[in-house]
Amino acid sequence: MLYQLSYQVIFVFVCIGYFLNAGANIIAFINITTLFFNFFSFFCTSFIYAFNNQIDNKKMNIVLLGYMASGKSFIGKKLAETLKYDRIDLDDFIESQEKCSVKELFEQKGEIYFRKVEHLHLKTLLKNKQKTIISLGGGTPCYYDNMTLLTEDESIKTIYLKVAIPELVRRLKNEKSQRPLIAHIETDELLTEFIGKHLFERSSFYNEAEFVIDANADVSEIIEDILLKLF
């Protein structure tokens, strides 16, 4: 994109030179614009190097939070690819440590037990990971002192992926069986009502994040918005 911009700038310079000089000394003017292009190319290369070096020098963890189906896992994967960071879903980490799915933990041991081990495993990840994208479960920020752990550590950047209720309903209505909290909800109307109430209760925790991102947008726009805020 920067190189395309440089060509556009050169074209403007050539046009100005033509009209100002009525074709005279156009060769000299082209030489000047070529020099400008070389300078601009050097600037672009230096900028890209500085940006990449800045990323390399930051050993921060980036934590994505938000409601169910807000895109934490998918966006986390794309962001990790862009930044060359490691990536992990907290739910996946819990399942690997507990040798049991999140759904089974809810069903067999209850939510209170799940929230306890969720808190402990989150602390483990934050202690042992650097340059990692961590995608939280939808309820993680709302229990124990999880948000305090995240917001008081300067090496952690927290990002709330905010999605509108109608879009959440659209994403969740066909995967209710995989979501313990909404598996019992039968209609779209009841699902909309549940999400609206539930999101209202959780929003105060989500909004403690350092950055709030509109996650209704296209994935590429979301990634670009995150990068602009982080760097």
Walk me through this protein's architecture:
By secondary structure, this protein is α/β, with parallel strands linked by helices. It has two domains: 2-55; 58-230, P-loop containing nucleotide triphosphate hydrolases (Rossmann fold). It is 63% helix and 10% strand. The chain has helices at residues 2-21, 26-57, 72-83, 90-98, 102-128, 146-151, 165-172, 188-206, 219-230; strands at 61-65, 86-89, 132-135, 156-162, 211-214. It has a five-stranded parallel beta sheet with strand order 2-3-1-4-5. The radius of gyration is 24 Å and the shape is globular. Mean pLDDT is 84; it is low at 1-7 and 42-50.
Number of helices: 9
Sheet of most strands: 5 strands, parallel
As residue ranges, the low-confidence spans are 1-7, 42-50
Strand content: 5-15%
The rough form would be described as globular
Judged by helices, strands and strand pairing, the structural class is alpha/beta
- Radius of gyration equals 24 Å
Q: In percent, how helical is the residue content?
A: 55-70%
Strand order of the largest sheet: 2-3-1-4-5
CATH topology of the largest domain: Rossmann fold
What is the string of SSEs from the N terminus onward?
HHEHEHHEHEHHEH
Cα(first) to Cα(last) distance is 18 Å
Mean pLDDT: 84
Number of domains: 2
Number of DSSP E strands: 5
CATH homologous superfamily of the largest domain, by name? Answer: P-loop containing nucleotide triphosphate hydrolases
Instruction: Write down the CATH class of the largest domain.
Output: Alpha Beta
CATH architecture of the largest domain: 3-Layer(aba) Sandwich
